[in-house]
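Case study 2.
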Amino acid sequence: MIDLYYWPTPNGWKISIALEEMGLDYRVVPVNIQKGEQFEPDFLKISPNNRMPAIVDQNPADGGAPISVFETGAILLYLADKTGQFIPADIRGRNEVIEWLMWQMGGLGPMLGQNGHFKFYAPEQIPYAQNRYSTEALRLYDVLDRRLDGRDYICGEYSIADMACWPWILTYKKQEIDLAEFPNIRAWYDRCKARPALRRGYEVGRDLSKPTGKWSDEARQNLMAQRVPRQS
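Prediction:
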């Protein structure tokens, strides 16, 4: 059994999708990020970066004590290695998947997150920031569209790289991006969406949060970057 510390966001969906695709037993432990539950001491022991998702594997491969893993890239690699699924065994194929996983972690996710933030959630309109992140979002879409030319999936076969990228491309309407400009992404997006396990993973926790497009003052404070008070 794997405990999934989770809230339904693009980063959370990466892991719920992976768990469904890999057929692993898991239990959802909600972490309401709008209420600040990501700062609770017990959660920080699992995810010291005060971000969800995180997992605790109650039955690790070595038969020892439970293993906790934070950061979605690390979690996806851990689960792929645990199950022997969705990452190639050969060194070249494995390296390729890891490259694109890191591309998502370091580029696609953070840049789309900033694009959405400055468009919809920043307390003041900053045209420079909006233009900077909108341009970078489109650049990354260009990169992915070129990569998918002639490929069904990012690394040929469906992998954890696709699981990492799809939940962020899912936000294309919110990001005000026209997928008609990116035909390879459009075809890949629909191909992934047709996978039953991916759809199940996307539906996990749907009843936990109903997006409104607006943040309460409490949610805004909890979702903005802040330092965690040191424990005495």
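The chain has two domains: 2-85, 91-194.
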